[in-house]
Amino acid sequence: MMLEPSIDALQEKINSKYTLVTLSARRARQMQETKRVHVENPKSHKYVGIALEEIQADKLYYEAAEE
Fold first, then answer.
1. 28 vs 57: CA distance, rounded Å
2. Of 10, 25, 53, 65, most Cβ neighbours within 10 A?
3. Structure pTM?
4. pLDDT values of the chain reduced to their tens digit, one per residue, 67 residues
């Protein structure tokens, strides 16, 4: 079973798997509350999958905190 978008493609956008998981989980919770999606016609039926599609489409990103 192939997942879309692929983890390799996503890691080109966000190089840390931990950050990718955290960002997509937070966005999934936000979508669950607001029902607002930033991509048209998402392929996934689950919020985490849609969040990953948003990352792939450059609709969702993060800024690293300065230390």
1. 16
2. 53
3. 0.85
4. 456 788 889 999 898 999 999 999 999 999 999 999 999 999 999 999 999 999 999 998 788 777 7
